[in-house]
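Sample A.
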Amino acid sequence: MGRPSGPPTRWALSWRILITDGLEEDGLTILRRRADVAEQDDLTGLEHFDALVVRGRTRVTSGVLSSAAPRLKVVGRAGVGVDNIDLEAAGRIGVIVVNAPLASTTSVAEHTLALMLSLARRIPDADRSLRRGEWRKAELEGVELSGRTLGIIGVGRIGSALAARARALGMHCIGFDPHLAPGEFRRRGVDPSGFAELLGLSDFISLHVPLTPETQGMIGPREFEMIRPGARLICTARGGLVDEASLLSALESGRLAGAALDVFAHEPPGPTSLVSHPNLVATPHIGAQTIEAQRRAAHDIAEELLAALGGQPLRWRVA
């Protein structure tokens, strides 16, 4: 249930809200009922706004936050990841940060599954070759997902949603997540596993953790040596979790049968050797790019932002 649409009389009607990365009309409508809303591509004049709404493109640094104080009170991320916002700086100067963590769960889980199927059945390669006039039926032999082991690193909302879909296809799901109690894994349909054990047992490995100093490069040279030969790696979470130079080496050596990335350390990555590798399936950070996810994100962040400005209880405060 959403919050009441009619503005309580105690709420201010003079708030100014800046949106820099665009927002679906559902969210704009909610915000415009109670505030003066401006849309632009940069942060010029941010010091004259009470709130800021961003997605993944705009970087909200310590300098940005400091220059916008004392008027700026809230930053809203229309999506899940907040690694483009300096949370420590926000907390230090009293700026609230909220996000919309539920909006993209289904879309990202479905996109991850689509990438797994693309790897398993070599769909992008088949498509490209047929468009070139080739008929490579005998060469394009794939594998079934049924009966394979899926290792999920990070068994939160998206990891759990992926597990439910993978189990429906007959996969065995194991997971590593230091924040979950052992019994919680099985409630989410995943057998608990140690990190090294997961790498060695999984036919497919999918990452669903935030980018933090602890997770930066968590799949690097050492981890690729531990991964089961012939496995396939998928990352739809955040660029920087996978060491891309090591991933390229693992693909070139044949240790990995394939990999799929929706996210990159630097976006857009350009025509790199990794992006061009025939055993990589690459998409341009579109995991949450569905009509449904964008509508939910806009609606949720608009309500949460107004609640923060109005001093109401918050559902998704991250700083």
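Sample B.
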Amino acid sequence: MAVKNFALIGAAGYIASRHLRAIKDTGNNLVAALDKFDSVGIIDSYFPDADFFVEFERFDRYLDKLIRSHTNVDFVSICTPNYLHDAHIRFGLKHGADVICEKPLVLNPWNIDSIKELETEMGRKVYNILQLRLHPAIIALKEEVARAPKDKVYEFDLTYITSRGHWYYTSWKGDISKSGGIATNIGVHFYDMLSWIFGDVKQNIVHIHTHDRAAGYLEFERARVRWFLSINVDTIPADIRAQGKRTYRSMNIEGKEIEFSDGFTDLHTRSYEEILKGNGFGLMEAMPSIKIVHDIRHQTPIGLKGDYHPFAALEQAPHPFHS
């Protein structure tokens, strides 16, 4: 397979290193990278000869110069804040490149519809990183559900807590207009996984949605799901906290725990391998999860009513900057 040229937007973000590694591990080349922050020494570990820009206009001009000198930019990889994905996807398509974008692809379902038009117009493809679909434990679960009787509806509890410090609220991630809030920012790939395995959404209820946690109930064709997401370390079970751990992941189906803590390290590289073979996850694959998080974001939480996740009853914490 011929070496592909990549450009990367958002090189200083924490997720960028996984994309750099994936580009390198698949035998391809990074020609240019952009970020308004210049803490990008990580590039030296992968592509020391790549050109780097802190101004969008100069990056844009450089890509145009490359293309006019018959150096193709085959892919643009996007690792920027969530609210910028839409614009940066369009930028990549307009430069005649295929696009690989981190989750969430966009913040609103209608953004996908308009990008689809541009994708068709330019004759290029947009791919979303939906790495859980490539995790062996998740693939095994999907196969198990597919083998079960078609009228079987599973009981499923999802708990995901990834602690964040006060910096989170100062950053773009703490601004719901930019990140989409907790459910969008840390939960979108779980909702993608659930819809991929269990089918269309029949009901979407939000019990709580605050600055540091969200919880709700999702009913799919094949599952009833209680979910809880949090960035507050105090919501981690005490025995886990006592071990000094600051993250907690649990997926429980019919009382059985699914072990999926391992196997995450190379999923971006696996994603790139599939994209380069033409098997990546496109715009329409991303649509169900984007619709779920959009609906969660625009609902009024109903409180502790109905079938809610047990962690939803934990004592609420004040906003660290509003106390």
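B remarks: The radius of gyration is 20 Å. The chain has two domains: 5-129, 132-313.
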